[in-house]
Write a structure and sequence with these properties.
Layout lengths: L2 H24 L4 H5 L5 H8 L1 H9 L10 H12 L19 E3 L15 E3 L8 E3 L2 E3 L9 H14 L2 E3 L7 H4 L4 E6 L15 H8 L4 E7 L10 E3 L6 H7 L7 E3 L9 H14 L5 E6 L3 H14 L5 E5 L10 H6 L4 H14 L7 E5 L5 H9 L4 E4 L1 H7 L21 H4 L4 H25 L13 E6 L2 E4 H4 L7 H4 L4 H9 L12
Parallel strand pairs: 4-13, 5-6, 6-7, 7-10, 10-11, 11-12, 12-13
Antiparallel strand pairs: 1-14, 2-3, 8-9, 14-15
Helix pairs in contact: 5-15, 5-17, 6-17, 10-11, 11-13, 11-20, 14-17
Length: 511
């Protein structure tokens, strides 16, 4: 470069730096830049890439959050169909209090030729559905891109498992590939709502009749933000999303915190029965992040009073959640999946209803051991959201709420979404689900059982402290069938049963 051009370029750079410095000194938004003009921008640049630096260069294989490197790697490898074994032994501290392990048998059972399935449908259901052990958990179109929905549903169609639509409505992309669907309604009743936001039974009946819809579900709450609704800003309500959700284009789309169609446990059970009727006898149930034992027991009492029960209950753990939520709710509200799952299982068992109601578990289900653990804790099947997103290509960048997903999964930006190759990701979803179920079945065989119904709480143990472990059978109460009705349940359960009231979600005072 000639000397004159070099001097000119230097002068331009110096002038630009001086302009930035001058602006930094007079701006009032950032104190750091007022004290350290120009160089202070390094702080914001490093802060921006901190999650990536943490994830790829600092965290160890087993201690990352929400999903550690080992789990992310196994999801990617299974989705790609590549090598997934690990050499040289575990890196985890198996003596650490809280570490859990499955109890194998010295006489393993033969692995079944086909993976077990779970029949969903109680005595009031005329069109039951056989659910896989691992399914796609609730994620809406709007939260995920059209291509992500296509890939998830295509994978479900190829692999023979179910795809929960999430509460964002029954979009064309859910129906495009013919995968089995669980159509979820939330408090906004998107896709089956009147102009003023109430439930529209005719729309619901018409759409639930679609052959791809195998079951219908009502969302009471979710793990990421239990107790609050959600808002989709008007700028994000495109014509396509508005059409899917039955809301006005460009207007703020609100999911209220609570439902309008019922306000008591009895009302909830009656509405679930109505959904099943409108759906032509297909299974109907609800999803919740468990709040308290008394509220669950109030719902169970309502089942006994009304004389019917949901065909399934999906338990979402507070550790779950693809949705964006306030930090206080993500970290400090809601019951973790282990406690919530066992609460629902035992409440149904104690009331003599467990054989009528199937229980699904949703919350950080990623590997085969997660599936088996949840089956032991009271689930009949599992749903997975974030692991399925990773199978589609999610890299856990944790910016889902910004519409800037780097891989086109959680975005409505067409330019970003086009990066997601639907045929390739469809096959990855199928492979990941198949490999995870096969590994869960192999684990159960190693434990000496060939069907989930044979698993017992004694087959899952937890390290209590150094030198002492307890099984789940020893550590927790497990109610026998009808124990609450007979009065033979543990004292704390009896007290909760007395405080629960089918006519209100509020706990009744007992003298």
């Amino acid at each position: 470069m000639p000397r004159s051009k070099g001097l000119a370029a230097g002068a331009i750079a110096l002038g630009a730096t001086a302009a930035v410095a001058a602006y930094d000194l007079i701006q009032r938004r950032h104190s750091v830049l007022r004290n350290y003009p120009v160089v202070g921008h390094l702080r914001y640049g490093l802060e921006r890439i901190r999650p990536e630096v943490q994830q790829y260069f600092i965290e160890r294989n087993w201690d990352g959050r929400p999903f550690d490197r080992d789990i992310r790697s196994i999801i990617y490898e299974r989705a790609k169909g590549t090598l997934e074994e690990q050499a040289f032994g575990t890196e985890r501290d198996v003596y650490r209090p809280g570490h859990e392990y499955l109890v194998h048998s010295v006489h393993p059972a033969p692995e079944p030729q086909e993976a077990p399935r779970v029949r969903i449908g109680g005595p009031d259901c005329t069109r039951p559905y056989d659910m896989a052990l691992v399914n796609v958990s609730a994620m809406s179109f709007g939260a995920l891109s059209a291509n992500a929905i296509r890939a998830l549903n295509g994978g479900a169609a190829k692999g023979g498992f179910a795809h929960d639509t999430g509460e964002g409505g029954l979009s064309p992309y859910h129906l495009e590939n013919g995968g089995d669907l669980v159509w979820e309604l939330g408090t906004g009743y998107f896709g089956a709502r009147t102009e003023d936001g109430d439930f529209d039974p005719q729309q619901f009946e018409d759409k639930a009749a679609h052959p791809s819809v195998k079951a219908v579900s009502l969302k009471l709450s979710q793990g990421a933000k239990p107790g609050i609704g959600g808002v989709l800003p008007g700028a994000k309500v495109t014509e396509e999303i508005a059409r899917t959700r039955n809301v006005p284009v460009g207007e703020k789309c609100v999911s209220p915190a609570s439902h309008r169609v019922f306000d008591t446990p009895v009302g909830l059970i009656e509405f679930i029965a109505r959904m099943r009727t409108l759906a032509g006898g297909k299974p109907a149930g609800f999803k919740l992040c468990v709040s308290s034992r008394e509220e669950v027991l109030a719902i169970v009492k309502a089942m006994l009073e009304v004389g019917t029960a949901p065909d399934f209950i999906i338990v979402d753990g507070s550790e779950g959640g693809t949705a964006a939520a306030p930090l206080e709710f993500e970290d400090h509200v809601g019951m973790p999946l282990t406690d919530g799952l066992m609460t629902v299982h035992n409440a149904l068992a104690g009331a003599g209803l467990r054989d009528r109601v199937k229980v699904g578990a949703s919350g950080k289900v990623a590997a085969g051991n997660d599936v088996v653990k949840r089956l032991i804790q009271g689930a009949d099947y599992t749903n997975s959201a974030r692991a399925m997103m990773m199978a589609v290509g999610c890299i856990q960048s944790q910016i889902c709420h910004t519409d800037k997903c780097p891989v086109g999964v959680a975005t409505q930006d067409p330019r970003r979404a086009r990066a997601l190759d639907v045929p390739d990701k469809t096959e990855r979803v199928r492979r990941y689900q198949d490999a995870t179920v096969r590994e869960a079945v192999r684990l159960m065989a190693a434990m000496g059982v060939d069907h989930p119904s044979q698993l017992t709480p004694d087959q899952l143990r937890v390290v209590v402290d150094h030198g002492r472990t307890e099984s789940y059978g020893e550590r927790y109460d497990w109610l026998s069938t009808g124990a609450l009705l007979e009065g033979s349940a543990p004292e704390q359960w009896v007290r909760s049963w007395e405080r629960a009231d089918a006519s209100t979600f509020h706990t009744r005072a007992v003298a």
